[in-house]
Amino acid sequence: MDVELRQLRCLVAIIDTGSFTDAALELGVSQAAVSRTLAALESVLGTRLLHRNSRSIALTPAGALVLARSRHLLAEVDDLVREAASGHTRLRIGHAWSALGHHTAAFQRRWAAAHPEIDMQLIRTNTSTGGLAEGVCDLAVVRGAFDAQRFASTVVGLERRVVAVAADDPWARRRSIGLEETRERTVVIDRRTGTTTAELWPTGAHPPLEYTKDIDDWLAAITTGRCIGITPESTATQYRREGIAFRPLRNTAPVPVHLVWHRHDPHPATGDAVALIAELYAGATTATSGRG
């Protein structure tokens, strides 16, 4: 026999209401049913959960453990039910570092205005797919490598690369930095979700590399002044930090920004999200070209 959710709810109700009688009222069953359900739970688990007499109820040590886990499990189930019931009225967009850069606010506002029936949420998850593979989002903004066989994708825009240096670094006074110059410095790379790899430089010509596993650690390393970072310009928008300056990097290709989703079960709003994000990036490109 397996543990049933109704048995866990029964235990929680007994403790929360303080009696079998009130638990029965809470659950809409008879007091005898409450007693039978608790007894069945204790039988399945092979241990007593409550000390009880005519005047009081107290948890046993095992009961305290089971109660805590029951609350957690029931909360998870309730969340699952709410998510299933909401269907496609919510769109979760994951990202590892910097969402859509300086397009983020415009996307949030325009989405809310155009699709008030679909609640859009941005979720930062420190994984290479921005949480898509982990099931925490419906589609994701990805700037690095991903499994193209497993996921469908499209490029919605391009972002130039920038160099991140400590604010008191001599390079902070420069207008731009050439890629070849970075070979003189130690470059910090986020191995898990970053976009910079040794392949950015010619074979055998990359600078000394240092590795981190999170954007905050990456930024902290740069503020020390012992190393620099190379990143898409969106990072400069999302992570403006005291003690760090961002300067354009010359002689490198831009970083493609992919929108990625599950190939066989896309969210119905995927097409609308792709179109709006691509429009925002295209508008920025047009504006830049116009100024030129």
What amount of the residues lies in strands?
Answer: 15-25%
Q: Could you tell me the mean pLDDT?
A: 92
Strand order of the largest sheet: 8-12-7-11-9-10
User: What's the main sheet like?
Assistant: 6 strands, mixed
Number of domains: 3
- CATH architecture assignment name of the largest domain: 3-Layer(aba) Sandwich
Please report the number of helical segments. Answer: 8
| Overall shape | elongated
CATH uppermost class of the largest domain: Alpha Beta
Rg from C-alpha positions?
A: 27 Å
Distance between the termini: 73 Å
CATH superfamily of the largest domain: Periplasmic binding protein-like II
Q: Note poorly predicted spans.
A: none
- The structure class reads alpha/beta
Describe the 3D structure.
With 292 residues, the chain is of the alpha/beta class. It has helices spanning 5-17, 20-27, 31-45, 61-86, 104-114, 215-223, 233-238, 270-291, and strands spanning 50-52, 57-59, 90-95, 119-124, 139-142, 151-159, 161-166, 177-178, 187-190, 209-212, 228-232, 244-250, 255-262. The strands form 3 sheets. A 6-stranded mixed sheet has the order 8-12-7-11-9-10. The longest helix has 26 residues, at 61-86. The chain is elongated. The termini are far apart. The mean pLDDT is 92.
Task: Spell out the blueprint of helices and strands.
Elements: H1 5-17, H2 20-27, H3 31-45, E1 50-52, E2 57-59, H4 61-86, E3 90-95, H5 104-114, E4 119-124, E5 139-142, E6 151-159, E7 161-166, E8 177-178, E9 187-190, E10 209-212, H6 215-223, E11 228-232, H7 233-238, E12 244-250, E13 255-262, H8 270-291
Parallel strand pairs: 3-4, 3-5, 8-12, 9-10, 9-11
Antiparallel strand pairs: 1-2, 5-13, 6-13, 7-11, 7-12
Helix pairs in contact: 1-2, 1-3, 1-4, 2-3, 5-8
